């Protein structure tokens, strides 16, 4: 299928649908983790540190699509809660490396279980094959977009 003026509208736009799903996910995770004093943004940051996706404020901001200043403030809050620690890099004293504390790792794992339950609830009526297909399609879309973003000055050019 190629999009045209007559077939491209919000309910068929991949970008709109992904954004809407993301917004609903953030709202659901915020509600799920509220009693633990944890927001969806804090959780995604903890998980990113846990899985080694980044280990600096700049790296996390880039990975999670946040403003660098907002990420620094978020890390300040998480450090105050005892979830994250900062250490100067031995090789480059200008860099400050972030790591999870034992309490941060425990918080990430406990929250992960709640988020898993949340997604299992959303997908309760889906078959294993449907879930696997959705994940495969989203991973393929991510790969395609990463490749286009890396190779083209205008990744949206036809």
UniProtKB/TrEMBL annotation:
Listed name of the protein: Multiple antibiotic resistance protein MarR
Any GO molecular function: DNA-binding transcription factor activity
UniProt xrefs under SUPFAM superfamilies: Winged helix' DNA-binding domain
Provenance organism: Sphingomonas dokdonensis
Encoding gene (name): marR
Pfam families: MarR (PF01047)
Keywords: DNA-binding, Transcription, Transcription regulation
Sequence ranges assigned to domain HTH marR-type in this UniProt record: 14-143
Keyword field contains Transcription: yes
Keyword Membrane in annotation: no
Source domain of life: Bacteria
